[in-house]
């Protein structure tokens, strides 16, 4: 397809289209293994367009992580909003929701954990975006509980479920994480 024949999109639509394509490529193929030319080709945009929108590959990867984070925040907030008003129920609703997210047919791993593994430099934009995503959930737990130590413990359980699900190819880590979170909450609240 020639540049002139490509679909005309607004800047926001172009950005979202590239991110949607990049998400699938990065999530399934790896961040470093997927080049900018691959993303541009699959998105049917010129590499110069991609660089104009994102500036660099690191900026594209950071935007991918931020996009995944926003989707995660939305389902966490929906789970919390649907739970009864107490902190215990709200947090257990988040752990209940993990089961659907760790579907072995589609779950390849946590986008943030994969990013942290591939971008170890703490000053890189992708690394900072992944850390911010994890910190948001920790702060959300801490805010509900008014207990940072308990929030940290819940994050260990949560992160362990995310890491174990891909290795095991089952949603059983989500079931176990929920049970552990319940035990921990009941022992501390």
How many domains in all? 2
Along the chain, the helix and strand elements come as HHHHHHHHH
Strand content: under 5%
Uncertain runs are 1-5
State the share of residues found in helices, binned by percent: over 70%
The number of distinct helices, counting runs of at least 4 residues, comes to 9
Question: Would you write up a description of this structure?
Answer:
This protein has 189 residues and is an all-alpha fold. The protein folds into two domains: 1-55, Orthogonal Bundle (Arc Repressor Mutant, subunit A); 57-188, Tetracycline Repressor, domain 2 (Orthogonal Bundle). The chain has nine helices and no strands. The chain has helices at 11-29, 36-43, 47-54, 57-82, 87-101, 111-118, 125-145, 148-168, 172-188. Helix 1 packs across helix 2 and helix 5 runs antiparallel to helix 9. The protein is elongated, with a radius of gyration of 19 Å. The termini are far apart.
Summarize the helices and strands and which ones pair or pack.
Elements (H helix, E strand, L loop, with lengths): L10 H19 L6 H8 L3 H8 L2 H26 L4 H15 L9 H8 L6 H21 L2 H21 L3 H17 L1
Helix pairs in contact: 1-2, 1-4, 4-5, 4-7, 5-9, 6-7, 7-8, 8-9
Can you tag this structure with a few keywords?
189 residues, mainly alpha, Tetracycline Repressor, domain 2, 9 helices
Compact summary:
The chain has helices at 11-29, 36-43, 47-54, 57-82, 87-101, 111-118, 125-145, 148-168, 172-188. By secondary structure, the protein is mainly α. The protein folds into two domains: 1-55, Arc Repressor Mutant, subunit A (Orthogonal Bundle), CATH 1.10.10.60; 57-188, Tetracycline Repressor, domain 2 (Orthogonal Bundle).
